[in-house]
Amino acid sequence: MEKIRVDIEGLTSFITKEEMNGLQKKVDNIHKKVHLNVYKKVHSIAGGDFLGWVELPIYQNAEELKLINLISQAVLSSDSYLVVIGIGGSYLGAKAAIELFKHPYQESKVIFLGYNTSSEYLSQTLEFLADKNFYLNVISKSGTTLEPALAFRAVKELMIKKYGSDYASRVIATTDKKRGSLFNEAINLGYKRLVVEDNIGGRYSVLTGVGLLPMACSGIEIEELLRGAKDAWDDLSLSNINSNFAYKYAVSRYLLYKQKKTTEILVNYDSSLNYISEWAKQLFCESEGKEHKGILVTSVSYTTDLHSLGQYVQDGKRNIFETTIYFEEDLRDIKVVSLDHSYDGLDELAGLSFKYITNQARLGVLKAHLEGGVPNIVIQIPKKNPYYLGYLFYFLEKACMMSAYLLGVNPFNQPGVESYKKEMFALLGLKK
Ligand code: PA5
Predict the structure, then answer these.
(1) 5-45+226-414, CATH topology level
(2) Does the beta carbon of 140 sit less than 6 angstroms from any atom of ligand 1?
């Protein structure tokens, strides 16, 4: 199988080979500590008790996979929907996968809720669900996160109205192994359960039941996704930055950050990747943005945004770099038609494929932005399919972990997220 590759040609006038190789020892050291934590449970690194995701691709829970297949068959073979309630790491991975593969005009069988406090969206969704059959997957490690907890109450009320006490058989709770209020509710009321192990944090949980159940219910081949993640685990298990592309990416980001390139723009050329960017933004910003350090990750979809943000990228403040996530082969491709009725002066393009045109656009943008002083990294993915998506998820998790450790912060906590909760709870009169 071809691997996902990282092309750093677009960094040559910003970073030298020597600077890259100069970080090899530091990377070796972090890698060694991480893997000592994983294999020997030696806690020698900050956040060492949250490294459960590292081995996840090789230790999948067969019982859980069986349950996921059972539920997804029930959803896919009927007129039922799956309502997924969760926020942050509890929904973005699945949403990203579903958006990547779904037909833009086909209704999705998976409906996400509980990722904001919008009364408009909640009431519209409840209205939509009123005469539909559905299962509910409520996802929260803590069980106390306000947004999903309140949405859960609202949907539960609707389910009790529709299904009576039988509603509980339609609820799947994805939660902590042994604690938390959602765990307690699931045990007391007999919900089906999927477990997020204690050593896996929300934003590193996409390859657990958190991501897998919603993906399976939208028809994504999760076996292929897991196969890709397993190959990534294998390919990224050594620390040499010339062969471990996740570390090569992490080191490149770190060196750019040292040059005050503090904003990374994730670029795609296909808006079906927009939620992949959203997932990666959460992964990197919640992992790295600490102690007044870290790269701010934002995103664009080209060529659309070349006609809005493109001006800034070409000509604005020079504290940015771009990372393009690019599929070398699309699932479908079409050709420019030759038409007698065309006055656009573009007849020379007739017969060329849109994929070819997109690639030329990408290369042109790369050249222009490099000339404008914007360093460029390209993550090249051979094909758009579940195998490479699984590979990409794991690849980005490993890159993010290394990036955060290079910066000197713990990738696995999120103390800053607690601050808004404290203030909001106080304003709501909640004692927490
Ligand atoms: O990455 C994280 O840990 C967070 O984004 C959480 O996933 C998010 O805050 C939701 O938390 P919980 O699953 O406890 O409801």
Answers:
(1) Rossmann fold (3.40.50)
(2) yes
